[in-house]
Each structure stands twice: as structure tokens, then as C-alpha cells.
Amino acid sequence: MEKNKKLIKYLSLWIPTIVWAGVIFYLSSIPKLEAIHDPLWNLITRKLGHIGVYFVLFLLLNRSFENKKPILAVYLALLYAISDEYHQSFVPLRKGDHIDVIIDLVGILGGYYWFKKIRKDSV
User: What range(s) does the VanZ-like domain occupy (predicted)?
Assistant: First the structure.
């Protein structure tokens, strides 16, 4: 019975993270992903999307580690961002862009600092 509880806890911690990573992978696989037809607003929307998506990925990874390894969560989220841009380089009409990795890192670090602030405020 104890093994079942541990498995359920493990799955409840990791399944949301894996699903979110899958959503990112799916969105990266769409050949021409445009949110808005206006070029400027499309650019702004996509870059804010990068920040938000990786902010959430950090929080989910950190939760998967039970909030005990936030630095590891930062590194894993960054590694995923790099691999995502590499993946996009193989998708028609897409390209891998190191600037997007930097933008993703803004979201990751935003999540990290938000987590630290929430944790500090709750003590």
C-alpha cells in the first residue's frame, strides 16, 4: 500500500510537468504559429508567450522536485528551452533562435524569483 501512495505522489508531481513540456513541443511543431495578423503585435504576443510558457515550466519543474531544488529546475527548464529551439530548426517555416532562448530564460528566472519571493513572504 505504501508503494502505491509513493507512486501516486510521484505521478501527481511529474505528470503536469510532462504534459506542459508536451504542450511546448506541440506548439513548436506547428509550422507557422501566428497569434495575430499584425506583425508587431504578433511578435510581442509570441515573445510574451515564451516568457509565460517558461515561467510555468519552471514552476512545474520546481513543484516536481517538491520545491527543494529550484536551481536544478532552472537548469532543466533552460535545457528544455535550448532543445526546443533546436527542435524548431527542423520544422518547416520555423527556425531555432538563440534570442528566444534568452527570452525563455527571462520567464524561467521570473518564475525562480517569484518562487523565492513567495517562499520568503510565507516564512
Answer: 23-116
